[in-house]
Amino acid sequence: MRDATEALIVIDMQNDFCPGGALAVAGGDEIVPGINALMDEFQTIVLTQDWHPADHASFAANHPGAAPFSIVEMSYGQQVLWPVHCLIGTEGGAFHPDLRTDPAQLIVRKGFRAAIDSYSAFFENDRTTPTGLEGYLDSRGITQLTFVGLATDYCVAYSALDAVRLGYKVSVRRDLCRGIDLGGSMEEARGQMIGAGVVLLSA
Ligand code: VGL
Ligand code: ZN
């Protein structure tokens, strides 16, 4: 069992990010058994859930004429326009049916404000509006985080980079993540994580 100062953060293991979903990540479902097994090692487990209203600004469908996966400028910087995904209360937004959720003490929902996306478990995409996760972890004395889940190059990488910035000791289990890989985003995320001091592990 890991020390009580460690937490496992499981990012966005939802139906829409798995094969058959609206924003499917290749092999997204393959990592469920490994994540379930890893939960046995941790005393603290947090799940995140991408959780969007239908009028969310990150949806290409809400930008007339814009194609999915194109990029627009928002007030807070560049934003990829995604297919409609992880709508609040839908099956697509639900966790993968085989993911263990009972061991988790906290579920963080993010991306619920229509005007701003939220990749990171800690901050919305303006990089300043908090989700509250930092307060939860700090008040429980947690200093070391292990990240797994979807997608490596978006929500996992943003979360891990914010965690380093906040002063946590951060590892990412690359074998328990899968990526979207849009225009070299996997390589870019990998370089940023290594540069920031994130420990990338393969088992
Ligand atoms: C994610 C794109 C849009 C993710 C969420 O979980 O990585 N990616 N919303
Ligand atoms: Zn999203």
Q: Can you characterise this structure?
A:
The strands form two sheets. This protein has a six-stranded parallel beta sheet with strand order 5-2-1-6-7-8, sandwiched between helices. The chain has a two-stranded antiparallel sheet with strand order 3-4. The chain has helices at 32-38, 133-139, 152-165, 185-196, and strands at 6-11, 45-50, 71-74, 77-80, 106-110, 144-150, 169-178, 199-201. Helix 3 links the parallel strand 6 (144-150) and strand 7 (169-178). The protein is globular. With 203 residues, the chain is α/β, with parallel strands linked by helices. The protein starts with 5 loop residues before the first strand and ends with a strand. The longest helix is centred in the last third of the chain and has 14 residues, at 152-165. The chain is built from four helices and eight strands. Helix content is 20%, strand content 22%. It binds pyrazine-2-carboxylic acid and zinc ion. Pyrazine-2-carboxylic acid binds next to helix 3.
